[in-house]
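[Automated response] Your request has been received and processed.

Submitted sequence:
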Amino acid sequence: MEEEKKVCASESAVDGSRDVWSSEPSLASSADHLVVMVNGILGRETDWKYAAEKFVRELPDKVFVHCSERNVSMLTLDGVDVMGGRLAEEVPFLLGVPAFEKVASCVIHFIFRRTGRHLFLTDDDEGKPPLLKRMVQDYGDLYFMSALRAFKRRFAYSNVDYDHIVGWRTSSIRRQSELANWKDTNNEKYPHVVYEEHCKACSDAEQCDSTEGNSYDKIEEELVTGLSRVSWEKVDVSFRNSKHRFSSHTIIQVKDQITQIEGADVIQHMIDHFLL
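Generated structure:
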């Protein structure tokens, strides 16, 4: 415990969110990268506790980590748009650090203000296309794809099996035919990373548009096509040899530091590939 105090410090902000930074003032003052961690459905800001502290321990003079608290537990069911609005309100509030707030003010208009209908593409707000379909392009004055393109690199970490919450095809932004042929790895540093792929941005002409079937399949194809217009680095992960493999959905983020520490190598992979 004493060692952790020397390495990083954390406190709850006014809104209940969790901020993590180096406890050494000289290191913390030079941090120039903001890492925002957001929990999944029915999750909490503490789900990212291990990852947040690990980031700061590894990069004490480079990063400041903010674990969002605006969308926790039942609030995650309010809808993608509502949650986006809450996060947009929260991010500029960070620390009162001028440098972070200045950056946030430049991108805040990229994020705007019910979750099941959104995820299953059944929402119909005033006759508009489903929200997720709108989000794979710049829609009106909402610059969704422009915001995504603003990042130099985009990573997608995916469980290839035993994740019964988010399927491999969905989390890795692939068509069924594009799923990788993978095998167990002998990589001692990242034993659970079984496949890595760099996917270049594709033009519309390069996309497969031969999808047949119901309208849902067509919309799904549009989503994959839209998101493939930017490059991705895809990292496939497997915990199939773990006795806790049926908890792969949360092991990948080390939600519990005692029973799910096996996922630590995935967090380490994120840190090692973090662009500074």
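Summary generated for your ticket: Residues 162 and 227 are 25 Å apart (CA to CA). The beta strands are 8-12, 18-22, 33-37, 63-67, 138-139, 142-143, 155-159, 193-199, 232-237.
If you did not submit this request, please reply to this message.
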